[in-house]
Structure to design on (598 residues):
């Protein structure tokens, strides 16, 4: 054992050796972080700073002008921004909630129940991790058109519910629950549904948080469904609205408004990740493909 | 506990294998949606790829004509789209993946607070996704002297006149790659970080006794072999993410096709033929090629990290 000082992984305390690592990572962190700092500053810049030459990254006299203009811009169009916000909340809420329910149900069955075709189904879902949805946007459009889902909330919601990564992570997490625990409950006469509700759901909360984050990140910024599956302006989402706003105001004066729009999209995303971060990392530890 | 009895009796969960109605009921919602929005579109794409279809008249069967045209007659695909896609995919896929792993490995050696702060910084870009951040890049790479990059490079004396970055065929693909790398540290990165942090302290101790001397040896001989499953998950996520973000060239330059096809990737080619020219059959053939490429890349990594 002579000389073994413990591995360097996950140290408890900060020491000088770690400073070296931080110095190595710093340039990369600056590259990753500057655009985020930039967009935050840009959103709060008054008009004269947006036009300042040479352009500055940091804001000196922050104002809320750009946010006010963002809301005013929508009041000139036929559809108020509140309508897009409402649509986005309905769509995002439904996708997050339903994908949690469906992934945990399927994950429970795939992990703990026995049925014919189980391994084939697991194999199919593992292969579907490689699924690139942009590759099938045309057939998806045809399917949605044929089912008569165009211009409904369902066109936004249903295509995002089957999330192979979500199911995969939930299933891996449920695998950690000992069978003995379930057997004890079965002996007491619990039904499958009762077990799902009173044992599985409470024990896989970290995996649920993870599914929530992944589903939220997919649906909140999704413009595909508004672009392709929706013709009715009043059925489109906030992400779509902010995107078109960005394309319409490509002059310098519009940049502040665009930045404000991006920030409004980014903040909920960041907030949810920060709140659920611990659960998320906990689930990720079980994410391996075997 | 009763379930711990030593009798060879199968547990209740194990007894009912065939026609387990409860299991099918639990699976039904997911499997139905999975079939409608993933399986059927894939089957439709494969079927359409053997036809000619303009969305108005019924598809007519053409055999392998679309694939033959794609490989022999589509100069733009062979000379621009395919090389662009391969360069992009290799740098952003495996390149971004190796970068993610090295960053995760460095982060794992920090104590909790600096690690958390840096993790959030590295992960944030992938949260919003490259597509919704194109506005930001348009401002930075703006073509006049008001553009942030132009202004910076002119001030330090690298440039005399502003470069119109996003329309210049020389710079579009490198910019797409930079933007994609910027947003590449996503779920796979977090999975690998969690995998490294979860490693068993005893293995490292044993390895130190066996003569592993430095951190680099530790990484090659212990860290990577013990977390092969997470490495594979990270690889698949990296490849899928790279292809999924492959459409940003059109958003950045504002046109499809991109100037001189310089930033045209395979996803843009599908959009071009599908939604602009309405040659759905041909677009479907390109989609099938895209899916095969993702599959091939992922299988390659699967071979690499196979557990024996």
């Amino acid at each position: 054992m002579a000389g073994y000082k413990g591995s360097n992984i996950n140290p408890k305390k900060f020491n000088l050796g770690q400073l070296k690592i931080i110095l190595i990572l710093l340039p990369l962190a600056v590259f990753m972080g500057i655009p985020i700092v930039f967009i935050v500053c840009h959103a709060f810049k008054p008009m004269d700073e947006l036009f300042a030459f040479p352009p500055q990254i940091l804001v000196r006299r922050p104002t809320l002008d750009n946010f006010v203009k963002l809301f005013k811009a929508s009041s000139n169009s036929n559809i108020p921004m509140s309508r897009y916000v409402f649509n986005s909340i309905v769509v995002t809420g439904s996708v997050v909630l339903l994908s949690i329910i469906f992934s945990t149900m399927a994950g429970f069955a795939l992990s703990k129940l026995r049925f014919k075709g189980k391994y084939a189904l697991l194999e199919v879902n593992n292969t579907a991790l490689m699924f690139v949805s942009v590759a099938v946007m045309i057939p998806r459009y045809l399917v949605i058109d044929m089912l008569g889902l165009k211009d409904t909330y369902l066109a936004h919601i249903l295509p995002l519910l089957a999330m192979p990564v979500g199911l995969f992570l939930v299933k891996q997490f449920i695998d950690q629950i000992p069978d003995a625990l379930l057997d004890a409950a079965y002996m007491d006469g619990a039904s499958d549904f009762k077990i799902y509700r009173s044992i599985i759901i409470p024990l896989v909360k970290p995996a649920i948080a993870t599914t929530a984050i992944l589903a939220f990140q997919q649906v909140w910024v999704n413009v595909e469904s508004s672009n392709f599956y929706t013709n009715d302006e009043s059925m489109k989402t906030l992400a779509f609205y902010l995107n078109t706003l960005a394309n319409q105001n490509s002059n310098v004066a519009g940049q502040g408004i665009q930045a404000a729009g991006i920030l409004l999209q980014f903040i909920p995303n960041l907030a949810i990740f920060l709140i659920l971060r611990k659960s998320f990392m906990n689930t990720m530890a079980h994410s391996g493909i075997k | 506990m009763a379930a711990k009895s030593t009798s060879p009796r199968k547990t209740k969960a194990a007894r009912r294998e065939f026609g387990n109605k409860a299991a099918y009921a639990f699976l039904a919602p997911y499997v139905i949606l999975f079939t409608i929005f993933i399986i059927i579109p894939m089957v439709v794409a494969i079927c359409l790829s053997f036809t000619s279809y303009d969305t108005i008249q019924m598809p007519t069967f053409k055999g392998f004509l679309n694939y033959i045209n794609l490989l022999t007659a589509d100069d733009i695909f062979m000379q621009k789209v395919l090389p662009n896609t391969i360069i992009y995919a290799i740098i952003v896929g495996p390149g971004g993946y190796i970068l993610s792993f090295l960053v995760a490995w460095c982060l794992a050696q920090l104590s909790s607070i600096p690690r958390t702060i840096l993790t959030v910084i590295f992960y944030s870009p992938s949260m919003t996704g490259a597509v919704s951040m194109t506005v930001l890049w348009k401002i930075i790479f703006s073509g006049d002297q008001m553009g942030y990059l132009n202004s910076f490079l002119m001030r330090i004396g690298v440039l005399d006149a502003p470069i119109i970055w996003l329309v210049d065929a020389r710079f579009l693909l490198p910019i797409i790659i930079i933007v994609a790398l910027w947003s590449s540290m996503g779920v796979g990165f977090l999975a690998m970080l969690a995998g490294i942090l979860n490693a068993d302290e005893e293995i490292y101790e044993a390895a130190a006794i066996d003569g592993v001397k430095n951190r680099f040896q530790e990484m090659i001989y212990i860290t990577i072999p013990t977390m092969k499953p997470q490495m594979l998950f990270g690889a698949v996520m990296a490849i899928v993410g790279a292809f999924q973000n492959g459409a940003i060239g059109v958003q950045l330059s504002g046109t499809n096709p991109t100037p001189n096809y310089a930033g045209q990737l395979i996803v843009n080619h599908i959009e071009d033929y599908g939604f602009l020219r309405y040659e759905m059959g041909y677009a479907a053939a390109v989609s099938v090629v895209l899916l095969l490429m993702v599959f091939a890349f992922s299988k390659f990594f699967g071979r690499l990290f196979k557990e024996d």
Notes: Chain A has 14 helices and no strands.
